[in-house]
Amino acid sequence: MIPFWIGGFILAAVIFTVVVVLASRRENKKLVVERYEIRSPKIPEAFDDFRIVFLTDLHCSEFGEENRELIEMVKKCRPHMILAGGDMLISKEDKSIEVPLKLMHQLAEKYPVYYADGNHELRLMRNEEIFGVRYKEYIHELKEYGVWHMSNETVILEQEGQFIHLTAVDLEPKFYQRFRIPEMKQEDMEQAVGKAFRDRFQILLAHNPNYFETYAQWGADLVLAGHFHGGMVRIPKINRGVISPQFQLFPKYDAGEFHIGNSTMILSRGLGNHSIKLRLFNKPEISCITLKSRRDKTWH
């Protein structure tokens, strides 16, 4: 016969688990908009009040039928451009790619959309022996919809004869290792995407936030990242994420806005999740970013 105290402990553990699961399922659907304002003297006057919606880590999630809730919330941000930061799908053989394709199609009908790969897209690309040509088909469909897919390249964005740069970097598999953070050097960035054009405002789509120091050293003025899902569980009051997908406890970069010198990183909590569908105190995020031109010398 099980002692009373052990039975009580088991019952409490079961109740706690049920409460966590139910709370997480509810939180996974509580989509919110987080607003950020980026000020820099490098932002041309033609890009003053230029609005960017940044979406990342959808992982095939849906908010309303065919993501209508998500699309409506994007519309309220009145964006000039949509940036997708990767991991919009799930790299498993039994997972459909229809949800992110439909979302990108609907967004591209209304806005310019630029799409960078995360580790899930890159896993599809690098493992054709497992996934076949699914990655090629996916990218082909994105391009058919008018989405600009970016892979280790820079696009020059123009407004009224003034310019900013948008770069997307595909990180090597070693930079997604679990339990450790390999060193990334500025040379690694330059080998992948070349040198930054430092006289113009430089946006960098880099899925993994661990290497913000390197991105800043390379020359990124604004880094947009995801991957960490906000730390899955966030601790209220201190507002810290508990664990990253690479099994880092209390990661240095978990979610929100970070600064190194004149570089800013916006790290989205992302929209979905995959293997462990856990979110607590960590609502899915649409990032609405407004660029502000400044003629003075103070950046932050």
* CATH homologous superfamily grouping: Metallo-dependent phosphatases
What's the arrangement of strands in the largest beta sheet?
Answer: 1-14-2-3-4-5
Multimeric status of the protein: single chain
Taken together, the total number of domains comes to 1
Shape: globular
What is the residue-averaged pLDDT? 89
Look at the helices and sheets and give the structural class. Answer: alpha/beta
Using the 3D structure, state the CATH architecture. 4-Layer Sandwich
For the biggest sheet, the summary is:
6 strands, mixed
Distance between the termini: 65 Å
Listing every helix as H and every strand as E from the N terminus to the C terminus, the arrangement reads HEEHEHEHHHEEEHEHEEEEEE
Say how many strands there are: 14
Provide the low-confidence segments as ranges.
Answer: 9-24
GO molecular function: metal ion binding; UDP-2,3-diacylglucosamine hydrolase activity
InterPro entries: Calcineurin-like_PHP, Metallo-depent_PP-like, Metallophosphoesterase_sf
GO cellular component, one term: membrane
Organism: Anaerostipes butyraticus
Structure characterization notes:
- Pfam families: Metallophos.
- GO terms for molecular function: metal ion binding; UDP-2,3-diacylglucosamine hydrolase activity.
- The chain crosses the membrane at residues 6-23.
- This is Phosphoesterase.
- InterPro entries: Calcineurin-like_PHP (IPR004843), Metallo-depent_PP-like (IPR029052), Metallophosphoesterase_sf (IPR051158).
- By secondary structure, this protein is α/β, with parallel strands linked by helices.
- It has one domain: Purple Acid Phosphatase, chain A, domain 2 (4-Layer Sandwich).
- It is built from 8 helices and 14 strands.
- It has a 6-stranded mixed β-sheet. A 6-stranded mixed β-sheet has the order 6-7-8-9-13-12. The protein has a two-stranded antiparallel sheet with strand order 10-11.
- Residues 9-24 have low confidence and may be disordered.
